[in-house]
Amino acid sequence: MADGVEPGTVRPGGRTARVRQAVLRAAEDALTEQGFTGLDLADIARRAAVGKTTVYRRWGTVTGLVADLLQDMAEQSAPRTETGSLLGDLTANARLVQRTLTDPRQGALFKALIAAATGDAKTAAALHRFYDIRVREWAPCVRQAADRGEVPEGTDPHDVIRAVSAPLYYHLLISGGRLDETAADRAAEAAAIAARAGVFVRGGGKPA
Amino acid sequence: MADGVEPGTVRPGGRTARVRQAVLRAAEDALTEQGFTGLDLADIARRAAVGKTTVYRRWGTVTGLVADLLQDMAEQSAPRTETGSLLGDLTANARLVQRTLTDPRQGALFKALIAAATGDAKTAAALHRFYDIRVREWAPCVRQAADRGEVPEGTDPHDVIRAVSAPLYYHLLISGGRLDETAADRAAEAAAIAARAGVFVRGGGKPA
DNA sequence: CGTCTAACGGGTCTGAAGTTTCGTTAATGG
DNA sequence: CCATTAACGAAACTTCAGACCCGTTAGACG
Q1: Bridge partners of A107?
Q2: Contact yes or no for A37/A118 (Cβ under 8 A)
Q3: What is the rounded CA–CA span in Å between residue A43 and residue B174?
Q4: What are the residue boundaries of the HTH tetR-type domain, all occurrences included (chains A, B) (predicted)?
């Protein structure tokens, strides 16, 4: 037997998958309720009705478990809406993010995920991948705006989408400011205006 | 004797103050090196050459210590620069933030502070206070821009300053994107353009 | 349907985080 | 300079997260 093989890779079907799902859901609940601090794997095992040995063997640490949870979350994507204008699309995105972060459960979960990522490189990589996928999902609306001539040629779609989210996460994590629909609309508007002005043109400084 | 009195409040001079400083510096080092996870008070006590009993008695938990550290950091403010134009001032601010977050020591420290704040309400409040002070320090440059007519009357100075920092923190914590001078300049430019367009006018939606 | 063994799970052990105790040191006020 | 006691610190104690052992369960493959 070749050791160094991660458990769960040889027989990924049936029970193994079931255990993984149960543990990930339990981890989600625990992170939501307890936050990242004061979280132990034994508690998660109890919630998942699974032996704690299993959790320790397969994930080892809390950050490792969070990294796996992020990968699992990345696999389920939510589709975007299309409104026909850049501002409309960005506003839809901003409100989706705002609603997610405002929701008591989801907001707490995302806080915990981000906190976990600050301490561990692998978890950080998983977080980056998760957001990269989300950003990719929304990027087409900027490309369409470029086709319509709403934003300059060469505008980086990813940067525009990220610019919409940034102020909302800043409120959530750092300033503690109100995270209402007005904040979402402002974030979208600011990003749209900056994009139109060519701030997000790849590689270049300002055009005029 | 009235119990319920926090230790260090009756005789705050001499030794008590010396111990506090030593512990806060040690906590800073530990947070920088180890991150928020895997940080224990006994280690901090060792670094500070102080009995661990003292650390547990005065601060109790890691988050409590971080909250005190934030209050200490808030007391030492760095003065802003003035360039005469809104974009110039915002760019100076953005570059200052960018340099701070890029610095290996400071960047790690801020990550740890923010992570700690996600899990504890008191620490979060301390973090909000810290950033509120920083924002207040820079707000006048927006007010001056309003006097010059660069931005509409009623523009919220705080929101503009926060809009500059937001994308930089988003890179640091969430997307993992490059945090170079170009990113800083873009953040400043986007905020300046949005401010000029009236996005940050208090209470109102878009003007035109 | 039966064999093989990957993966799970209960029980036990251990080391370190955190608490309590009590003696020691040094601010504070007169 | 002395008395008072707040605050510190060393060491013993407690608790529990996380590691380990080994028997049990159930996928994979013929």
Answers
A1: none
A2: no
A3: 27
A4: 17-77
